[in-house]
Structure prediction request, 784 residues.
Amino acid sequence: MKNFTFCVPTKFVFGRGAELQAGALIREFCGTKVLIHYGGGSAVRSGLIGRIEKSLSEARIGYVKLGGVQPNPRDTLIYQGIELARREGVDFVLAVGGGSTIDSSKAISHGVCYDGDFWDFFCGKAVPQRTLPFGAVLTMAAAGSESSNSCVITQESTHTKRGLRTEMNRTRFAIMNPELAMTLPPYQIACGATDILAHIMERYFTCDREVDLIDRLSEGAMQAVIRAARIAVKQPDNYDAQSQLMWGSTIAHNDTLGVGRTQDWGSHQIEHELSARYDVAHGAGLAVVFPAWMRYHYSKNVMRFAQFAVRVYGCAMNFENPEETALRGIEAHESFLRDIGMPLTLNELGARSEDIPAMAAKTKTTNPDGTTGGVFPMTAADIEAILRIADR
Amino acid sequence: MKNFTFCVPTKFVFGRGAELQAGALIREFCGTKVLIHYGGGSAVRSGLIGRIEKSLSEARIGYVKLGGVQPNPRDTLIYQGIELARREGVDFVLAVGGGSTIDSSKAISHGVCYDGDFWDFFCGKAVPQRTLPFGAVLTMAAAGSESSNSCVITQESTHTKRGLRTEMNRTRFAIMNPELAMTLPPYQIACGATDILAHIMERYFTCDREVDLIDRLSEGAMQAVIRAARIAVKQPDNYDAQSQLMWGSTIAHNDTLGVGRTQDWGSHQIEHELSARYDVAHGAGLAVVFPAWMRYHYSKNVMRFAQFAVRVYGCAMNFENPEETALRGIEAHESFLRDIGMPLTLNELGARSEDIPAMAAKTKTTNPDGTTGGVFPMTAADIEAILRIADR
Prediction:
């Protein structure tokens, strides 16, 4: 196990009716004037925003509202949010939604405390030093943004999607009521489950040795998420399945399943190019990219991919030919994704073969030598080859 | 999954040489005058206390020292610690040791901020409202006190061992260097592993349904801890095995593996009577009590005990007779405990048959109706029967 630091100070309030505690929680974290930030009208129509307003009013906390967050959240709305928050003297930001809304709220919170352009944080020009406190009412299990140190924003004018990792990105609290996810369409639930699994898998496919504890935890989490996803896409009102997915989304991305090991994150970087260019759901993009990434790299660490096949999907180990077992695991994962209604090819996503070289060239490099990915560093040629695998 | 709140704000700094960050961490948490609290002379002789003193001096932080914490930490030393801390104007307590030292430090920290007798918190007369901030340098993987909300103290004059659960019990930081555990005798390592497993099992043997995610995580953690314990008792200098145990001790007891379910904790209450009366190691007492508790209760939830047998110990499921599988799991756990050198009987612990009724009568009740245990509530007669099973 490698040296690590781990700190997730978020207070999680999980269960039925949890959103009614919003006012009390904001008071606990000293908020007096809140920006309620949300996405489409469904949060309003469902009565969720109304219940939160009531909770805030009962706690004698003022608020303003800003809706309209889109999937792959845009810089344009964030500039509006920063201006609104400054004008209204907001001292706490409350995200009501999924990962996109929470990420948009994080960017607003950092931006309010920064004199320059908040995009500086995302293009590497500056590092956030201060932020407004912010919390989340989660309505969708997917991104794990409710307690991760991540935030991903799209610059609308350039179709550039960039992430920011900093401990400033941790929410003060996360209100998690699985009932709120029951109204999601099955496709969205499936995208969420795919994202959750991808967050675990980016950490799981390490080449580090002697990481048994986190391996076992991760395998257990993947088994539970796979089982719950199969149920939830057919029965969105199944509270228990939604519960496993919602708590799963949190532990999948707050590094509970990632400490002490080299992680990859190459597939996420490739997917960012897909969703920035075609505005597809992040989970759907990952369903296309991840299996292709696995097929491209598995031969470099056959035994780990075989371990995945055996322990997560219950494949029989072929001791004479572990490579065959590794491939069975990738196929099992593809079958699962297909079963829950995810695309597996660029074509199904609406992506074009002719864009592959440009996407490969634009994928963010994460290593000093210009490659991408912590475990299996990839050149643009590698990324192009992976996208070609997905172009079937 | 039941409603829950979860918050573990502790900052974990894990890995080789981590103790050298003590000074910087205390400064981060605004400590200026520290009580370094530790156990026997080994922490001094090994040079660990010296390295920490150096780290504090480099950060220009003053300190006083108080050693002498014994296993099953005593109220008597805690009174000394409170007096010393007040006299010296201490504003931060640093525990250097295992669970006993950390628990003693928690009690001192609470006691300094309380006008009455700190034992009030442990006998239910008062609830701590304030505490000095405190951190830990962990030297032994076992109690999980480095991030749990628990603290257990023994009143020396009455041989009464009582626990306190409060969010005030969370450390500000935990420094965890697995190298520090390498000098422990194998018996201590085995006691620690037994305690870790017991913390998971108290949470695992629930009768709640639809708790798949936490079940899978718990089963994974148990598998990893069992494997690491077998290695570490034979090779105490195996860094990787010690790493799995040390991080395992933390997640086993900070509720990462317990949220959203009814937990039991009856075995712990019974064990407290053993260690208070005979001053045996907590882990050794649990090795005797837990299998007896399992044998007494398994028939009330056969399928869960069969699940434990199959998923944790790899027993074959007997579909015609799940009860047989459940028993194979208990036997497998006993074999494991025996393999790592743990006692399985009261006799091996040095406990006397004639004390059984008194211990059963004295075991702390945890339910309003006078019974003990959250999942399988026990009367004194039940506890006596369990101790009789262990009296073989």
